[in-house]
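Running this now, will post back.
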Amino acid sequence: MSKVNSVKIFSYIAYLLPIAIVVGSFLTDLIVSLIALFFLYKLFKEKIWHYFKNNFSYIFLFFYFYILLRSFFSFDIILSLEHSLFYFRYLFFVFGVIYLIKNNNKFIKFFFYSLSFIFIILIIDAYIQFFFERNIIGMTNTIEGRLSGLFYDKFILGQYLARLYPLLLGLAFYVCKDNKFIISLIVSLLFFIDVLVFISGDRTAFILMMMSTIMLLCIANEYKILRLLVLIISLSFIAVITFFSDTVYERVVSETIKEAQLDSEEKLIISSTHQDLFSTSVKMFNDNKLFGHGPKTFRLLCSNYYQTSEGCSTHPHNMYLQLLSETGIVGTIPIILCFFYVSYLLLRQFLNLIFQGKDQYLQDYQIFLLIALFITLWPIAPTMSFF
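Update: finished.
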């Protein structure tokens, strides 16, 4: 197989990734593994060892070998190795994507088209499900007040849209930098996304969406007025929908008041369920602060620490607390360093804007990509399992 043909084939595989995430974890992991294997093949064939000569590689490899070593000293070695043994594939996946970008000058453009396509389909499908109680393939909501869309029984629609929209926006600014009409359409798409993330019932996703919007308004170079206008309109529609929809009001307002116990003397910042999980992870961390108990061991050992039945699960629903309880301070430091570095780049951009006006060092597409990383690494929010 020639180099050109292999690059094209694996580029098409990579274009399917945004769709694969919707289909399920098996197809997603298959694509990640295939691209990782593709890079591994190119690594030995073309001797491109320079890919590893950067700080990202050094931090990743330290983290990988640490969690691998930690697994061999965990409570359940086999279970722990399920997370750590093949974790290196994510590094090879990243390098595989970089290789495709460097050897296919249309890769970013077509990946942008793929991500745009799935966004439009998800948005249309979810609004159909909201108004008609069934989506385009006939699926109904399995939980009152939540929208799953094409994710079936996984209520991550809001997370998908909120976390990946900055990536979509960054790609739009990179691919269509000279086409203001297309960029204006992509920014205007935020109206539908803002409202949809809210009515999906995912409060964390909506908070992340607002965080990314605030950062966009503060540090982006262009289209801030349009985004502000879209935000005002979308918040107005959200207010109207909340007032007239009993389902949305019950999920977003009544349930929030109930879970945070805002109507009682003992108020909570988060739900009691999350608080119990967080409390359990902190107790596990205190038992082994430096090294933790081993990857994937929270589900096994949480029963020894929780006070209520809600204090135990497969993971503590916060990636930093999961890392602290399972990998200790040593395993959490690399992720904290990544978060601080991304925060530093965004803060420097903001300070440049204040003190130097338009003389800024980051382009808009870079800002949006950093925002995508920032909200992914944001520590004060419920998350899925880190691994």
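The two ends are 34 Å apart (CA to CA). More later if anyone needs it.
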